[in-house]
Amino acid sequence: PVFSPPYNPPSTTPSPTPASSARDARACAYSPAFEALWKVYPRKIGKQAAWRAFQRVKVPLETLVDAVERQKCSAQWREQNGRFIPHLATWLNQGRWEDEVEGTAGNWPGQGRSSTNQFLDLLEKVRKQ
């Protein structure tokens, strides 16, 4: 009789490759500036895509946050429970911080700021790091 070695089925769980492990670690290591923007952005969808887009944008964080605060007051962003708020990745990729927003004059948080604004305190903290 012919004897064959015992059958050992291949493992069904893939072992992580060094490249994929490094890529996953980078994807989860968000900067404090990005976290600050993510915190104020009203639509929390697609965080990793937003992170990749944020890394390509060369605009001061304060410019982005001011634009978000202005646009939060726009009719487009308030309609139908925020249905028309773009994902943050889209907003960043399309340079939407440069959009002109109608109907927000005098009622957005960028005017008449006080030191009790929690986001501005966080922004100052991020800048000092």
Overview of this protein structure:
With 129 residues, the protein is mainly α. The longest helix is centred in the middle third of the chain and has 12 residues, at 61-72. 49% of the residues lie in helices and 0% in strands. The chain contains seven helices and no strands. Mean pLDDT is 79; it is low at 104-115.
Give the terminus-to-terminus CA distance: 74 Å
Most strands sheet = none
| Relative helix content | 40-55%
Task: Determine the mean pLDDT.
Answer: 79
What's the Cα radius of gyration?
Answer: 22 Å
Shape: elongated
Structural class: mainly alpha
Helices and strands, in order, run as: HHHHHHH
Count of alpha and pi helical runs: 7
Task: Please mark out the parts with pLDDT under 50 across 5 or more consecutive residues, or reply none.
Answer: 104-115
Q: Based on DSSP secondary structure assignment, what is the total number of beta strands? A: 0
Which strand-content bin applies to the residues?
under 5%
Concise synopsis of the structure shown:
The chain has 129 residues and is an all-alpha fold. Helix content is 49%, strand content 0%.
Secondary structure topology:
Elements: H1 18-28, H2 32-40, H3 47-56, H4 61-72, H5 75-78, H6 88-93, H7 118-128
